[in-house]
Amino acid sequence: MTISAGAAVAQDYPKQPISFVVPMAPGGGVDTVSRSVAQLLSERIGQTVIVENKPGAGGLVAAGYVVRAAPDGYTVFVADTGQLSVTPSLHETLPYDKTASFVPITEAVSAPLFLAVNAASPIKSVEDFIAYAKANPGTVYGSTGVGGVHHLGMHLLATKAGVELVHVPYRGSSQSTTALASGEVPVLLSALPSLRGHIESGKVRVIAVATPERSVLMPDLPTIAETGGNLSDFSVAVNIGFVLPPETPDAIAQYLYKEIDAVMDDKALQDRLMSMGLVPLRNGPDQYRKNIAADTAKYLEVIKASGATAQN
């Protein structure tokens, strides 16, 4: 029995387990959000909610699994900007129909990215960074790997600022931020959890946040967009959301949005997310659909300009 598309969705929802499919191994932001929401959602609706970790191929294993799942509301893909808006453009071929569109539930949280420099650097603002890069063509920057949001975000920043940068990819945020702290690279974009220890040790300095408005995580820190000019619309973040298999009825998405959003209203959960450097967004299905489309178009253009290709 599947959920009907009528008004009484909750009454038509048999109490069989709901699966949250996570495109990575246990640990990390997406997995933590999934498990936190799953526990509270299960308690709220009186229904088992399990987390299935399906890592591999930059999220393609999990995405393919969800695409092929029945559109009945019992399989939910918990994914971030990388899986939903970058990977489909980064790969020429996918192990599923590229035209298949996930049905959005909610864009739940955001992991803002911060422009950070080595503390010994003379760079103390975005303007300083641009001046430094113009005076030193070929300035290197680190990232979590080719084709990731951290890489593409810096390429976009360089393009808009009119500077020439050289990309040095690492195998993850821990390695890239360690390289920044040691002075191996002078600058990068990264989320706060990876930077916090290096900030506290005095080895790294954050100079701006890449969100359109100042972040509640560091409200005194300016945005990159405040620099003005070509950067006035600059926005890069890794957002985490919940989506359903293609062709899932909208009524199901609306029902799950209502229940998950009620869970997101939990103050203890919000505090825990904020302590991890994650900011609750709680965008509904319609807004999330628009944001996925906008991010996909933005990153497709950056991918083409950067020449980035999928890395095995």
Could you list some keywords that capture this structure?
single chain, 312 residues, alpha/beta, eight-stranded mixed beta sheet
Summarize the structure.
This protein is of the alpha/beta class. Helix content is 39%, strand content 21%. Strand 1, helix 1 (29-45) and strand 2 form a beta-alpha-beta unit.
Topology:
Blueprint: E1 18-22, H1 29-45, E2 49-53, H2 60-67, E3 75-80, H3 81-90, E4 103-118, H4 126-135, E5 139-143, H5 149-161, E6 165-169, H6 173-182, E7 187-191, H7 192-200, E8 204-209, E9 237-244, H8 250-264, H9 267-275, E10 279-283, H10 285-306
Parallel strand pairs: 1-2, 1-3, 5-6
Antiparallel strand pairs: 3-9, 4-7, 4-8, 4-9, 4-10
Helix pairs in contact: 1-8, 3-10, 5-10
What does this 3D model show about the protein?
The protein is α/β, with parallel strands linked by helices. It has helices at residues 29-45, 60-67, 81-90, 126-135, 149-161, 173-182, 192-200, 250-264, 267-275, 285-306, and strands at residues 18-22, 49-53, 75-80, 103-118, 139-143, 165-169, 187-191, 204-209, 237-244, 279-283. The strands form two sheets. Strands 1, 2, 3, 4, 7, 8, 9 and 10 form an eight-stranded mixed sheet that branches. A two-stranded parallel ribbon has the order 5-6. It starts with 17 loop residues before the first strand and ends in a 6-residue tail after the last helix. Mean pLDDT is 93; it is low at 1-7.
